[in-house]
Amino acid sequence: DTAVSQTPKYLVTQMGNDKSIKCEQNLGHDTMYWYKQDSKKFLKIMFSYNNKELIINETVPNRFSPKSPDKAHLNLHINSLELGDSAVYFCASSPTGGSYNEQFFGPGTRLTVL
Amino acid sequence: AQSVTQLDSHVSVSEGTPVLLRCNYSSSYSPSLFWYVQHPNKGLQLLLKYTSAATLVKGINGFEAEFKKSETSFHLTKPSAHMSDAAEYFCVVSDKGSGTYKYIFGTGTRLKVLA
Questions:
Q1: Cβ contact (<8 Å) for B51 and A56?
Q2: Which of A1, A40, A51, A79 has the smallest number of Cβ neighbours within 10 A?
Q3: What is the C-alpha separation between A79 and A87, in angstroms, rounded?
Q4: Do B43 and A98 touch (CB under 8 A)?
Q5: Are the CB atoms for A86 and A112 separated by under 8 Å?
Q6: Cβ distance B86 to B15 under 8 Å?
Q7: Would you call B43 and A108 a contact, using CB atoms and an 8 Å cutoff?
Q8: Can you give the pLDDT at residue B54?
Q9: Nearest CA of chain A to the CA of B79: how many Å?
Q10: Residue among A99, A102, A112 with most chain B CBs within 10 A, to mutate
Q11: How many CB atoms lie within 10 A of CB A93?
């Protein structure tokens, strides 16, 4: 009965490849997010969707494309992977995008680009 | 735009002694503030949140934080550290961007608990 799940947990790939990370939440939340955590543990938001609509799109290379087939899923596709994309990617969800709403985080996907 | 500053990147305490992790915020209006914990190779878990109700907020695992507007601080405390508290702690402010709210994370404080 995992609340926010991500697959895969680990992803090792070569530069130039295309890869996807999947996220699913079973909490009935309307809003989902993708975050990137770099090697220094700094966390920054990348994208947010509310009911399948993109509401936050930070300054992220357009090689990154989120897709939300329904409000329980938010996938992240990355084209032409680069060394600098190596990081831990976290998916999260919240009931709405309100200021006081807690976000629930997935376990993370560690991406290593060789 | 709002921001948070975590004043210590590393804190070491002995087991059984008090914990203090410091966080200062910058905000043009009444903020929503959160503390999250990340254990090694794990996701983030909410410890507590401040949403303008009580200024002293109690969280899980014996942690609490006090919102002090005059000092723009939201420090995290625990009376007695346990070995299992060793982790990375993040102070977070919820910032309203272009019509919606997003989390702004501090740079994190790594807590080490010595036996």
A1: no
A2: A1
A3: 15
A4: no
A5: yes
A6: no
A7: yes
A8: 85
A9: 25
A10: A99
A11: 28
> Residue A20 corresponds to which tokens in the numbers above?
């996807």
Per the CB < 8 A criterion, the answer to whether B25 and B93 are in contact is: yes
> What's the CA gap between B13 and B27, in Å, rounded?
31
- Residues listed for chain B: 115
In three-state secondary structure terms, B61 is helix
> In chain B, what are the domains?
3-114 (2.60.40.10)
- Nearest-neighbour CA in chain B from A48: distance (Å): 9
Phi first, then psi: give them for residue A64, nearest 5 degrees: -95, 125
pLDDT tens for each residue of A9-50: 999 999 999 999 999 999 999 999 999 999 999 999 999 988
Other Cβ atoms closer than 10 A to B83: 10
Domains of chain A: 4-113 (2.60.40.10)
Cα distance between residue B89 and residue B51, in whole Å: 19
